[in-house]
Amino acid sequence: MTRALAKKLKIAGFPIGTYRFGHKFYPPEQGGEWSETARRHGVTITSHDLQEHMQDMRDGYYCPDASDLIEACGDRFARLWVSTAIWTAESDDPPHAVLGESPEEALAKLWLALNRPKSTELQ
Question: Which of 26, 71, 89, 113 is deepest in the core (most CB within 10 A)?
Fold first, then answer.
């Protein structure tokens, strides 16, 4: 998952549960002791990060895994499949089909499509 997509999830209010080892996050743009490489490519969460960098994780951009994304889509999630290295995530109600380079990318895009703010109707 890219930094831009993780940032979109955060801005859209993706429900983040407990931070877990092995998940990826992007450190905040400023502050902390993170290298430019870590800011650009992300960091895999370790026990040290949970103890020492929890605020950086909250200020940065968390990358949920496929199971978290499917759970967040709820009953609207229909299916996920891969064809020639392109992943497709679908919902039936309302119908959406989105593509991604990984299962997490496709599922994140599906969650964003399903949780897009409704535009207010003109009166």
Answer: 89
What pLDDT is recorded for position 118? 63
CB-based contact 43:56 (threshold 8 Å):
no
What does the block give as tokens for 40?
């650009």
The domains of the chain are located at 17-63, 66-114
Q: In this predicted model, what pLDDT tens digit does every residue of 89-121 receive, in sequence order?
A: 999 988 999 999 999 999 999 999 999 876 544
Alpha carbons 100 and 78: distance in angstroms, whole number: 16
Give the pLDDT score at 121. Answer: 42
CA 26 from chain centre, in angstroms, equals: 11
37-66 pLDDT, tens digit per residue, is 999 999 999 888 888 888 898 899 999 999
